[in-house]
Amino acid sequence: MRLNDNITLDTEEYHKELLSLQDEKYKMVISRQWKTKNGYSMKEWYFRHDKIMDFFLVQNFLGERDEIKTRLNEHIGYPRFSGVYFLLANLLQADAAFQLRENLIQYAADTNDHTVSDTFVKLLRSRKL
Hints:
The protein is of the alpha+beta class. It is 50% helix and 12% strand. The protein has 2 domains: 8-48, no CATH class; 52-127, no CATH class. The protein has helices at 15-22, 50-57, 66-74, 82-91, 94-111, 117-127; strands at residues 8-9, 29-35, 41-47. Strand 2 and strand 3 (41-47) form a beta hairpin. The two termini are 33 Å apart.
């Protein structure tokens, strides 16, 4: 979804989950409703905030599998994933966090794009590993 800039959630596949996440207790998703020109009722679901989406998305970046290690490096240049990398600064084990820090620094040096690396380094430093 994030790669395609799709922000609507799949109602059919996750209907029960969406209802739970909309509950007063969580308020993680919101729905928008409208009527089409033909009078049909439409409803779409969204995460209330990008940071909530990042919270769920970061789960796909945690672990030791090779595909996850590849994914960590694949999305460094995508601004849509910057929030995920900021979460990773606090969630990864020390060795993995330092390796990702190095990859981010190398990416920043090669591209002059320090938007993710600088904040990641500061977040990692604040962990006092």
